[in-house]
Amino acid sequence: MIKIMSNSIFQGLTRLLLLAWILLPSLSTAQNGELFANETLPIEISAERTVSIAFPSTIKSVDRGSSDLLVEKARGTENVLLVKWARKGAQPTSLIVVTGDGAVHSFETIYQDSPGSISLRMVRPSGQLMPNFIAQIDATLDERMVEETMHLAEMAQPNLDKRDSNGDFLLDLQGLFVQGPVMLIKLSLSNQSPIDYDIESLRLFISDKKQVKRTASQREEIVLIRSAPSISKVSASEEKTLIIAFPKLTLPNSKHLHVELTEKGGARHVQIQLKSRHLYKVQSL
């Protein structure tokens, strides 16, 4: 004997079938990568020269499509990735980088003996929160010129004095310089404590003068062109000088420029804040 379903059971099954009919095509589309697709950016990588990619936020994870692709964070930084092929003539593969601002960066790495650019940085288009394209900064900047300019900044006399200290560790901004499209900051890192200071990250960013909340939209990360020398630790009772180079900029009165140094596994974080009037003291090299 065939049992006849009650009206309530029939209606319940109908709703389930209707829901399945709506969801299944969407799930299939998502599986095929047609939803929330990120643009994949082609980059040229060599086996002889290292290519650096600077991101506007800290690097959280990296996935390589092939073990022939060698990657590592630049020493003393949290947002710069160094990329190189293990052998010549390697086949193209994927590189996916997830950063602290929640962005997923997808690249196709292509072998090239002489890459068109070896210093890349991710930048945010105006009005957008997540970065989605690369600016090749070394197309207009000569590497030797940048090195010479950084050397001049290291030798230059102090023209500014802004400090912050925490637990006998002192960060002293001693100079602000400019040469063409490059601006430079001279920093003194002094550790007067008996405990080594291990550097987790050095960040440069612009924030609103009046902040109701600390949100990503109110902070604009500045990607460094270069910092020298490479420093990962300031030992007990040691003092070091650090030069950082970044694209030249000016500030409106409503913005501040911050230099932030954080300690790895510690709490002696220091931060220096510059107002627009401080930038007027910049010295040409």
Structure overview:
It is a single chain. The chain has 285 residues and is mainly β. The chain has 2 domains: 40-139, Sandwich (Immunoglobulin-like); 143-284, Immunoglobulins (Immunoglobulin-like). It contains 3 helices and 20 strands. The chain has helices at 7-31, 143-155, 276-279, and strands at 40-45, 51-54, 59-64, 69-73, 80-85, 93-99, 104-111, 119-123, 133-136, 162-166, 169-179, 182-191, 197-208, 219-221, 226-228, 233-234, 238-247, 255-263, 270-274, 283-284. Strands 10, 11, 12, 15, 17 and 20 form a 6-stranded mixed β-sheet that branches. It has a 5-stranded mixed β-sheet with strand order 4-5-2-8-9, with no helix packed on it. Strands 13, 14, 16, 18 and 19 form a 5-stranded antiparallel β-sheet that branches. A hairpin with a 2-residue loop joins β10 (162-166) and β11 (169-179). Residues 1-7, 16-37, 125-140 and 212-217 have low confidence and may be disordered. It comes from Dyadobacter jiangsuensis. This is Conjugative transposon TraN protein. Pfam families: DUF4138 (PF13595).
Overall number of structural domains: 2
Largest sheet features: 6 strands, mixed
How many strand elements? 20
Work out the strand percent. Answer: 35-45%
Rg is 25 Å
Identify the CATH homologous superfamily of the largest domain.
Immunoglobulins
Helix content: 10-25%
Please state the structural category: mainly beta
- In whole angstroms, the N-to-C terminal distance is 97 Å
What's the CATH class label of the largest domain?
Mainly Beta
Instruction: Please state the overall shape, judged from the principal axes of the Cα atoms.
Output: globular
CATH topology of the largest domain: Immunoglobulin-like
What is the count of helical runs? 3
The secondary-structure element order is HEEEEEEEEEHEEEEEEEEEEHE
* Parts with pLDDT < 50 across at least 5 consecutive residues: 1-7, 16-37, 125-140, 212-217
Mean pLDDT across the residues is 78
* CATH architecture grouping of the largest domain: Sandwich
